[in-house]
Each structure stands twice: as structure tokens, then as C-alpha cells.
Amino acid sequence: MEYLPTDLPEVLLIKPKVFGDQRGFFMETFRQSEFEEICGRVDFVQDNHSGSPQGILRGLHYQLKNTQGKLVRVVYGEVFDVAVDIRQGSPTFGKWTGQILSAENKHQLWVPGGFAHGYYVISEWAEFVYKTTDYYAPAWERSLLWNDLAIGIEWPLVNGEAPTLSAKDAAAPLLKDADVFPLGWTKDQKENR
After folding, report:
1. C-alpha pair distances (Å), 132 with each of 3, 13, 55, 62, 170
2. Which of 9, 12, 24, 71 lies at a C-alpha separation of 20 to 30 Å from 105?
């Protein structure tokens, strides 16, 4: 696999080697030894799979404790996937990166702990799968408002129409009002696991 930097150095775009012929294709989507050599030691503990129609925006989500790193990909359709640095004191605090992930391009995105994550469905239907480094912990789940002007994400909205959001995501705070990871936070701190 090829691991490419994005606008946020810790968030990596991963392009698998795809082998195909008249029978279809084969690719590795994860190899622990290679991943750890490039991204560091991780333990994935949960796999998730969601399906959504066009225009759905999920996010921007994160957990303050039981912090989740996410290895994400699309197995059907196409999404615009986004990560936002919310580590106070980071040189890229409040900055974002976005990537098109699709069943066709087979790209993945590694979003480590310390980043908010979300995606917008571009195709008529998309199925999104991801591994997480910790379990879902609703008590520690937080959100950022998807269209916070201070962050300035350039969402590729279909026909310029507003996305469909959950009530929780529609009421998410702006970055200036959000709970973020404190100065000096690291993904290895035990109290954040």
C-alpha cells in the first residue's frame, strides 16, 4: 500500500495495490506490520459499517476519552471524507483535510485520535466501513458544527443543497465553543483511553 500525507501530516491517504483481471479484483485493505511501521502502534477493537443516501452528512464526530483512531474506506458509492485537527496547541489546530473515497478508487484514510471526523455522501447511495482503536463511548462523544466558518470546510454539496443532518449534528457547537483535546494531549495518555 502507498501511504500519502495530506494537509494534516498525521492524517494519511492510503492507496492499496489492486490486482485485477477478467474475474474481478483482489487487494489487501490492512496489514498490521506495514501500518505500524508508518502510523505507529495501534490496536483496532471495533469494525463499523454504515449506509446512507445522497446528501447525508455524518459528523464531525470525536470522543474526548476512549479516543478513537479510525481507518476508513468506502465499499459502495462515493463520499467526501473530512478530518479536522482539534488538538489545542497543534500547529494545524482548526485546519481540515478532505478526500474523495469511493468503491472505485478504493482509497482509505487514516484519522488518528485528536481529530474530528465526518463524511458527506456524494453518490446516490454509499456504504462506509471503518476500524476504530477504541470502543464507542457515548458519554465522551462530541461533535463540531459541519459548516463552522472558522474551519471553512469546502463540502462538495450536490446541487448546492444543504446536507441532511441528525438532530445532534445540526446542534453541534462551533470550534470556539467545543470541547477539544487539551494542550499537551497525546494519543498515548492512559486517561484518554
Report:
1. 18, 16, 24, 11, 24
2. 9
